[in-house]
Amino acid sequence: PKGSDEDYDPRIYESVYLQVLKHRRYEITRLNITLSTHSRSVYTFNMPVEELIPNASEVSHSIEEVEHTYPNLHGLEQEMEEWYA
Length: 85
Fold this sequence. Notes:
Layout: H1 10-20, H2 56-69, H3 73-81
């Protein structure tokens, strides 16, 4: 039936996100349980939240990596314009 667990295929999500994240580090997490979403929100699980803030070295490294990958600013701007396509 529409909307049931039978509609969910983790391989489809995996293939989509592999494309979306192809230039990023990622880890595939296999879930072996199904959490009920009936009258619940992901925000009600009360998981600890930690803000990710890079240190100065990580910022410098990221900037150097972008400058190396995109020596031409136009190329970077074009890719940023098309990142969602």
